[in-house]
Amino acid sequence: MEQQALRSWRRETRDRLVGARLALSADKLDSWRTKIDAFIERAFPGLVRAKLALCWPIRNEYDARPLARRLRDQGAVTALPAVVAPRQPLVFREWHPGVKLAIGPLEIPYPLDSAEVVPDAVLLPMNGWDDRGYRLGYGGGFFDRTLAAAPNKPLAIGVAYEMARLETIHPQGWDVPVDWLVTERGVYRRDSERLEFLGAPDPGFFGEKPG
C-alpha cells in the first residue's frame, strides 16, 4: 500500500474503531477493565516488583489506574509518558496521586517534574491490533520510536478490546509489535511472529516476569 493510501486507511480505521469504543456503556467498560486487570495480575505477577509505565486513558481506552494503585501498594513504581519533542522518544516520569500534572498532546496529562523512570514493562493501549501483534495508535509514532530506541527494551504488554481486532494494520518497517496482548477475552503471547492465544489465566497461570 502506498504511503498516502496507508495514511488515509489508518486514519479512517482509527476513527471507526475509536467511534465504536466511545459508544460503549460505562458498565461494559468497567466489566472489561475488571477482567483485563485480573488477567494482567495473574499472568504477570512480577509487576508488583517492576517499574511499570502506563498511559492515561482517553476516549474509553482501558483504564490502568486502578490496577496501578494495587501494584503500587505491593511495591511497584508507576510512571506515565511525556512528550519532550516531536519525532523523539518519550520519557517516563514517576506518577502516583499527588504528582503535579500538565496537559500534553491529545489533552493527555503527564507528570511535570517528577523523577524519570526507566520502565521494565509498559501497558500499551491499542486503538486496533492484528494477529502479528502490531498496534494502531494515534499516528504520532512515539511509542514505536521509544521501544526501538530503548537500550533494554521493556516488556511491551498491549491492552485492547476484542472488537478492535483487525486482519492487519499494514505494518511498516518502523512499527514495533507488542510482546503480549491482554483483552477482555484473555492473554495472547507473540510467538514466531504471531499472537498465540493462551486463554483466560486462572490464579495458577504462569506468565513471564519483567526484568
Q: Could you explain the architecture of this structure?
A:
The chain has a single domain (3-199), classed as Rossmann fold (3-Layer(aba) Sandwich), CATH 3.40.50. It is built from four helices and 13 strands. The protein has helices at 3-22, 26-43, 65-73, 142-149, and strands at residues 51-53, 77-82, 91-94, 101-103, 109-111, 121-125, 128-130, 135-136, 155-159, 165-166, 180-182, 187-191, 194-199. A hairpin with a 2-residue loop joins strand 12 (187-191) and strand 13 (194-199). The radius of gyration is 16 Å and the shape is globular.
Question: What structural keywords apply?
Answer:
24% strand; alpha/beta; 211 residues; 3-stranded mixed β-sheet; disordered C terminus; 26% helix; Rossmann fold; 8-stranded mixed β-sheet
